[in-house]
């Protein structure tokens, strides 16, 4: 609570200020809705928001877990083979530099409308930070430490699990935090094209000029991102208690 109450107080103060400014017509309610209006909209369309939130959350979670599994696996392989790293890593960089909104129509052609395209979009956006951070962490072990392991005739797998992986842990955690936020961005971009979830709800609200629905969806997406951050913090605290690196 000592860490969170300043943010909660400032957020509540910001809501009060926006409520006051909108009611005094300093800001147009058609452009920036009052917080009370956003809450009323969430209550009126609660069933739609709950269903959309579940769809987006499941797609984000699937894409994030997939990026974690494949991204760390690829990074481990790269750390064992410099040739593979030089041959394949540029393609991962390529996918990271291409805007996902430009790839999303292709994903619809390949996977069709619905969850598969959204999961693929979420995965493509979020996998590169996992690869890059994990690889950076695996390569952060000093040459002196590696020489010590070689002195005791440790093989490549032992060096990876006993030396490189503990050194890489902070980097992996940082990559997961970055990829968690990007997985939400990728999922929403996929939903704009493939339909479903909060992305489709936002796109529908855009055509209706319903900024209150858009702000409500943005609030739910922010809460989703905070959930993933809290989950990672909890996992980190458990790991640190069991085995501090």
In short:
The chain has 245 residues and is mainly alpha-helical.
Model description:
- This protein has 10 helices and no strands.
- The two termini are 26 Å apart.
- It is mainly alpha-helical and 245 residues long.
- The radius of gyration is 22 Å and the shape is globular.
Q: What do the pLDDT scores average to?
A: 84
Sum up the overall morphology in one term.
Answer: globular
- Looking at how many chains there are and whether they match, the oligomeric state comes to single chain
- CATH superfamily label: MetI-like
Count every helix, treating DSSP H or I runs of 4 or more residues as helices: 10
Number of domains: 1
Q: Would you list the SSEs in sequence order as H and E?
A: HHHHHHHHHH
Instruction: State Rg.
Output: 22 Å
Helix content: over 70%
The CATH first-level class comes to Mainly Alpha
What fraction of the residues are assigned to beta strands by DSSP? under 5%
| Terminal Cα span | 26 Å
Return the CATH topology: MetI-like fold
Structural class: mainly alpha
| Poorly predicted ranges | none
Largest sheet: none
Strands, count: 0
CATH architecture: Orthogonal Bundle
Give a quick set of tags describing it:
10 helices; 0% strand; 85% helix; globular; 245 residues
Walk me through the topology.
Layout: H1 5-23, H2 35-44, H3 46-80, H4 82-97, H5 100-111, H6 115-138, H7 143-151, H8 156-194, H9 197-208, H10 211-242
Helix pairs in contact: 2-10, 3-4, 3-6, 3-8, 3-9, 4-6, 5-6, 5-8, 6-8, 8-9, 8-10, 9-10
């Amino acid at each position: 609570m000592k860490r969170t109450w300043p943010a909660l107080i400032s957020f509540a103060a910001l809501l009060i200020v926006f409520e006051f400014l909108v009611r005094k017509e300093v800001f147009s309610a058609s452009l920036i809705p009052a917080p009370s209006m956003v809450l009323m909209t969430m209550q009126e369309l609660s069933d739609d928001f709950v269903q959309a939130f579940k769809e987006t959350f499941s797609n984000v979670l699937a894409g994030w877990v997939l990026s974690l599994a494949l991204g760390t696996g690829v990074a481990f392989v790269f750390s064992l083979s410099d040739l593979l790293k030089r041959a394949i890593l540029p393609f991962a960089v390529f996918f990271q530099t291409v805007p996902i909104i430009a790839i999303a129509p292709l994903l619809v052609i390949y996977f069709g409308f619905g969850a598969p395209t959204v999961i693929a979009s979420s995965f493509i956006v979020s996998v590169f930070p996992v690869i890059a951070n994990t690889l950076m962490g695996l390569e952060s072990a000093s040459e002196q430490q590696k020489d010590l392991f070689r002195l005791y005739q440790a093989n490549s797998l032992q060096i990876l699990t006993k030396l490189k992986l503990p050194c890489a842990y902070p980097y992996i955690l940082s990559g997961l935090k970055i990829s968690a936020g990007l997985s939400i961005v990728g999922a929403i971009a996929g939903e704009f094209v493939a339909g479903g979830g909060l992305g489709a709800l936002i796109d529908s609200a855009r055509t209706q000029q319903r900024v209150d629905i858009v702000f409500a969806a943005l609030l739910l997406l922010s809460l989703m991102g905070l959930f993933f951050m809290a989950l990672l913090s909890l996992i980190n605290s458990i790991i640190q208690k069991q085995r501090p690196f």
